[in-house]
Amino acid sequence: MPDPGEKLWFIKRTIEAFESKPAALWRTPLARSLLFHFVAIETLGELVFGPRRGSVTFPIPALWGLYRLRHAAFVLAALVLASGAVAAGTYGYGVARAGTDWVFQQISPPPTAGGLGAPALAAERIGSPPKEVWLVTQEGDEELWSNGLRVVTTFETKGEPRQFFAFPKDGAPPVPMGPNPVGIVYHASESDMAPFGAAFNRDILSTTRDLAGWLSRRRIYNYIIDRFGQVYRIVSDETVAIHAGISIWGDEKRYYLNLNESFIGIAFESQWSSAGGDAITTAQIQAALSLTDLLRARYGIEDVNCVPHGLVSVSAGKKLIGYHGDWARNFPFGALGLRDNYQVPPPSITAFGFGYDEDLVSRLGGSLWPGVAAAERELEKRAESERVELEVLRARLQRRYHENLEVAQLARSAQPSRVRGAERASSP
C-alpha cells in the first residue's frame, strides 16, 4: 500500500469499524486481537473492491483466499475461543468450589455431639400445637397460614390422585382410602449444597431453586425446606409425590405399604449422616414444626404416622429394613412436638418378618434405633407362643407381605371391587 493517503484511510477506517463493535466483544486480549484482525481484513476488502478498486491489490495471493473465507475463519476461531473458555471455567469452578469448601470447613467445623443434628435437638417444642390452621392470604406464588407458615408455590405441580389400601391389624379386609394423606415421611435431600455462610448467599439460593425445579419436573417430595427455613411446595397435598419407594409403616389400627400414595413427603435440604454432622438448621426445624402442625391439623394425621424415611424404607427382595437410611438416627421428634418413633417396633419386622444385616448396623454407626430390638423380642415371643421356629414364622409373615402387596397394587387400577377376591391377604 504505497500511497500514504490510502494507508491513512485504511488505518482510520479500521479503527472506526473496530470501535463501533460492542464493547463486550473486545474486553479480553485474545478476543480483542481476533476481532481487530477480522475488521482489518474487512477494511482491506473495502479498499480493494470499493471505489478505489484497482489502486490497491492484495500484496500476497494467500490473503485473497483468507479474505474469501474470512467469515468462516472468524466463526471457527470464535468456537475455539469459546471452547477454551468453557474448559477453563469448568476447571476453575472445581478448584474454586474445593477451595471455598475447605475455607468453610475451617471457619465452621461440623457440629459436635452437643450441636446441630445431635441429641440436643430432642428438646420439647415451644408452645402447644394449634387446633386449627387456616389460609390467611395467597398473593402471587406465596401462601400465608395462620400459624405464621409461609409456603412458596412457584414450583408446585400435581401428581396422580391419592388412592390406596390400608390393611387393618384385626384381620379385616383391606380398606380403600384417599384422597387425603394419613401420614408424613421426613427425608434428607442428600443434594449438592453450597457452603452455609453469609458469603455464599447467592450460591445457596441458586442451588435451592435449581433443586426445587429439578424435583418439580420429576414430582419428587411434596415439600422441600431450604436451609433458611423457606418452605416450597413441590407436589400438591392431594396428589402423589415420589418419595418413599418400597416402604412399610403402621399405626394402632392399620398397616400401610409403599407410602408414596398414603403419606406426604417432606424433605430437608440437607446432607444427613448417622453421626449428625452437617444436618439441619434451627430455621429448618422451626419451619418443619409449622408445616407439620398445618398438615396434622388439616388432615387429622396422628403423630405415630409422622416418621423418618430410614424407619420405613425396606428392600422387598432381600426382606431387609433400612434400605434408605436418612434420619434413621437423630431426627428431632421432640422439637416438632412428636412422639419418639424410634421407640416404636417397626411393622416391617413385627407384621411382615423383615430382618436387618450388618451393613445397616455399620451405616448407622454401630447400632440401630431401639424399636428394632423391641420388634425382634416381640417376634421371638410370638414364635414361642405359637410353638414354631422363628424362621418359619418369618417366612409366613413374608408371604403375607407379598399377598398384601398385590392388593396394594390394585389401588392404581381404580377397581376397588377386586378387593373382595383378595381378602385372604388380610389374614395372618
User: Looking at this structure, what is the CATH superfamily of the domain at 159-426?
Assistant: Peptidoglycan recognition protein-like
**Beta fraction of the residues?**
5-15%
Biggest sheet: strands, sense, closure? 8 strands, mixed
Radius of gyration: 32 Å
Q: Please name the CATH architecture of the domain at 159-426.
A: 3-Layer(aba) Sandwich
CATH class of the domain at 159-426: Alpha Beta
SSE topology string: HHHHEEEEEEHEEEEEHEHEEHHHH
For the biggest β-sheet, the strand order reads 1-2-3-8-7-11-6-12
Task: Provide structural commentary.
The protein is of the alpha/beta class. The protein has helices spanning 4-19, 29-49, 61-68, 70-107, 201-218, 282-299, 309-312, 347-350, 358-363, 370-386, 390-409; strands spanning 135-139, 142-145, 150-152, 164-168, 175-177, 183-188, 223-225, 231-233, 248-250, 254-257, 263-268, 306-308, 314-315, 320-321. The protein has a domain at 159-426: Lysozyme-like. Helix content is 40%, strand content 12%. The chain has an eight-stranded mixed β-sheet with strand order 1-2-3-8-7-11-6-12. It has a four-stranded antiparallel β-sheet with strand order 5-4-10-9, covered by helices on one side. It is elongated and about 115 Å long. 34% of the residues are buried.
